[in-house]
Design brief:
Helix 1 packs antiparallel against helix 8 (171-186), helix 8 (171-186) runs antiparallel to helix 13 (268-285) and helix 12 packs antiparallel against helix 15. The protein has two domains: 19-157, D-Maltodextrin-Binding Protein, domain 2; 171-346, no CATH class. It is built from 16 helices and four strands. The protein is 66% helix and 5% strand. Strands 2-1-3-4 form a four-stranded mixed β-sheet, sandwiched between helices. The longest helix is centred in the first third of the chain and has 34 residues, at 98-131. It is mainly alpha-helical.
Length: 348
């Protein structure tokens, strides 16, 4: 019952409109020109706000947190770019705000790379013009002015794309399905009394009746499989996927997961603890705690292929072959272990 409101809450949190821009104080004789040009670029002004300050005042503002970074320009910065001198500008960030500092440094590196590439093209043209007898001084200003016009109107060259923090599924559906899949796996602890070999007189009766380990494993796992498939089908119907092959595949995987844990855990508390740890790890790897877009690269590559991520899609009726194969492998391994456990405990 909590899955849908939780998913809606995560969607509201991750899709909040309005991002507070990073404030960059610009110092130097060309600060007014640079802040004016940058403020007229819509794709930059959406995320960065530029203000002109004296360097002492700017450094004080950086210390008290009123600005995110300080960009100190050398003398004749713009003229140096036009002439090719390229005197370096200094960028100061606040070490107490590492995330904002990294964003500023990344943006600065992108700007430097763009400028370097553009200058390479400009000076290649100037060299060609020089070979044709056209003086450099007569062409450099016109070429740079054309480049500035091109840069200011560059937004028409790009297609805007809206990316979701969760990737394949809408945010609300992603988190609601993640919670449901987690609960499906967490239900494994309920089946412990069924999966452990019979104790005392009941076990003795099974042995005396000629019950083999394989027969015990089949008899123990069958009701677990039926319960898991019924629960998975109900979840599939709740999310619009219906009683599909994918939902049944999720039931097989949940049965294999529960049966494997039941075959190795002697007590219910041990099975509950191990079930919680493993299922929570699967939730994390599938991007069910941290949005996939914000996960470390080492984990982000595993998100789409993780069992729980495949289960999310399977419950919606999208595929399920991979989940079924994983579930069948778990069930086979669990059947072997259950059979061996029954034989071992029957011998005392």
């Amino acid at each position: 019952m909590l899955a849908l409101p939780l998913g809606a809450g995560m969607e509201s949190l991750l899709e909040r409109e309005g991002v507070e821009p990073l404030v960059i104080a610009v110092c130097g004789e060309d600060a007014q020109l640079l802040t004016g040009v940058a403020s007229n670029m819509a794709d930059i002004s959406e995320y960065c706000s530029f203000i002109e300050l004296e360097q002492t005042e700017a450094m004080s503002a950086l210390e008290n947190g009123s600005v995110t970074a300080v960009l100190a320009l050398p003398d004749d910065f713009v003229g140096g770019i036009l002439s090719g001198k390229n005197e370096p500008a200094l960028l100061y960030t606040d070490p107490a705000r590492p995330l904002e500092g990294m964003l500023i440094l990344y943006a600065g590196q992108c700007a430097a790379d763009m400028l370097s590439a553009a200058q390479g093209g400009i000076y290649a043209v100037l060299d060609e013009l020089a070979n044709q007898g056209i003086e450099r001084e007569n062409a450099v200003m016109e070429i740079n002015l054309e480049y500035i016009k091109f840069t200011l109107s560059r937004s028409g060259m790009y297609a805007e794309e809206r990316l979701s923090a969760t990737g394949a599924l809408p945010i609300a559906q992603h988190y609601a399905l993640t919670l449901m899949c987690w609960l499906l796996l967490m239900s494994a602890a309920v089946y412990h009394p069924v999966l452990r070999p019979g104790q005392g007189e009941w076990r003795a009766r099974l042995v005396s009746a000629g019950c083999s380990g394989a027969q015990w494993a089949l008899g123990a796992m069958l009701p677990v499989l039926l319960c898991c498939c019924a629960l998975a089908a109900a979840l599939g119907c709740a999310f619009g996927g219906g009683v599909s092959f994918g939902a049944m595949a999720c039931g097989v995987f949940a049965c294999g997961f529960a049966s494997l844990l039941g075959s190795v855990c002697r007590g219910e508390s041990a099975m509950a603890a191990l079930c919680f740890a493993l299922s929570l790890a699967l939730v994390f790897v599938s991007g069910g705690i941290i949005p996939p877009a914000l996960m470390p690269k080492a984990f982000a590559a595993l998100v789409s292929d993780s069992p729980l991520a495949l289960m999310r899609l399977a419950l919606l009726g999208q595929g399920g072959a991979e989940v079924a194969a994983l579930g069948a492998a778990l069930c086979a391994a669990a059947a072997v272990l259950c059979a061996r456990g029954f034989v071992r405990e029957a011998r005392g």
